[in-house]
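Contributing: when you submit paired examples, paste them exactly as shown. First protein:
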Amino acid sequence: MTIKIPSLTIGDITVPIPIIQGGMGVRVSLSGLSSAVANAGGIGTIAAVGLGDVITAKSDFEKVCSDALALELRKAKSLTDGPIAVNILGVLSNAKDLIRTSIREGIRLIVSGASLPLRLPELSPDEGVYLLPIVSSGRAADIVLRTWDKRYGRTADALIVEGPLAGGHLGFSMEQLKTPEKYSLDLLLPEVLEAIKPFEDKFGRKIPVIMAGGVYTGADIARLLRAGASGVQMATRFVATHECDVDPEFKRAFLEAKEEDIVLIKSPVGLPGRAIRNQFLENLESGRIDKIRCPYRCLSTCEVATAKYCIALALINSSVGDMEKGLVFCGQNAYRVDKIVSVKELMAELVAEIEAA
């Protein structure tokens, strides 16, 4: 017997498939991928970090980044009428400017993580714009929602709960990541549902919980939906699609990765990260990376004096296929990727698996 898949509703936005495509920077999830996901019945996400020409940005960083984001959003809107979200890292020095740009271009879904987004309502006061903070525990959810309630008299429009198997920057310590089973999505979900209940009661509405990090199959999605999640966020699987905006060599890294190639690293952002071991990481470990000179100051938390590499440049390099100088972020399940498919095919496969689970 198959089940009817529940739609995902955030504010007055409803999509038939409860999947948000995760925002992947730098230049991994742009207009091509996000619009394809929106057209297929989910929510597509553009990552706002690292856009624009790197040379021009040296002299006018904020304007170059803002103009590049606006251009990407206009491309996406020309390709779909479906909902597009923008993912904006809380540690970006120009986060406020990118949020303003997104809203000006008609975006109504703002996702923010890589730190507790305690000031997000201040940066985006328009109540017609829906705010989705990323948290990694019930405690973090309580801190964010309690702060928003006290300072701004509002609550989150949805919560994204990212577990320890996610790709990119992680909201866990290196010590915690050694025992990821203690922080599995199945354990995180009930504690977050409990943490948000007082705020749902106070504001008189449901706060959808979106689970992320290690979600790979439709069976994973069905299990989380049965346990009380309103949807999931997936990123790694969308890299291996024809519409993903990165260079083919980036996708090849996923296809060729073995389980032992998925490693944890320390990022200049000050957070652990998960990536695919490659020549760049080997050079980094052996000290064969030139000392950086940062002209951008794009990250408010980056310790330029002690940083061993520029993460923005490393991610830009990989996005254009320079794998010897590029960092490849990925989720823990990246080694399971074995083929490139279209977004439409991937979504259909996931839907069939959800129905059958």
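Second protein:
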Amino acid sequence: MTMQKTMTGRAWAEMLLLAVIWGGSFLAIRVALDEINPLTSVAHRTGWAMLLLWGVVIVMRLPVPRDPRIWLGFLGMGLLNNVIPFGLMAWGQLYIETGLTSILNAATAIFGVIAAALFFADERITRRKAIGVGLGFFGVATAIGLDNFASFDLRSIAQLAILGGTVSYALASVWARHFLGGLTPQVAAAGMLTGSTLITLPLAWIVDGPISLDLAPATFIAIGYYALIATAAAYLLYYRVLALAGSGNLMLVTLLIPPVAITLGAAVRGEDLSPNAFAGFALLALGLVILDGRIVAWLRTKR
């Protein structure tokens, strides 16, 4: 088993900050969707974040790749990690609560394990992983509520759209390992957002019409938050936390995001989630804890 890094106070603080930032993004996106359409919201998110990150690359004087294959990798990564999941989740949020969106989004780690096992020989599914994935799926099914599929209305489709976004995130991790290894995090993030912006700008223009900046102040604030803080700055903070805490500890962020999103959704928009949603999150969280492996290892040592 891979050794986990010891969590310092600074690592915990930055991980909690990252969870709060990403948890707040669900509310900010929903606020923006009161005035703009989903694809336009994605174009704003990737476009402004791209400009900020290229500014960071220039200031840091980082080398920019010139190999066309890497730029093709950026385009694919932008599609899988931004365009598809951001678009599906933004559309889904029109019909379900922000808190429920964040709960279903946590399934990304479950699908990530499956995708890694399918594409990489060194990522086989062990018994522990199988149990964690099984509990995760049971948690997702509980959160959605199987009775919702009896009528199969827009709410049901929206929840499936959110899950489709998590599958795309999982495939993006496979793509990144294949095509974007060896790049600095800042360049990789800027290149990915460039690829996604090249797709979202014309797509949003065709589907939603010309992108207007004549927006209400609340919409501008929401866009600024989820584009500049929850996307560009969060990517940079993510890699700082990765260096401090290690990849294993970063799974804890997945568990911390939904409580933030649920609290903000209830406080700002008066959202009230069903008991199924909370029970589903509890099961999903248990699955993620088992996937993480530390508690299982600790129990084995005690036994």
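If you have annotations for the second protein, write them as plain sentences, like these:
The mean pLDDT is 87.
The two ends are 18 Å apart (CA to CA).
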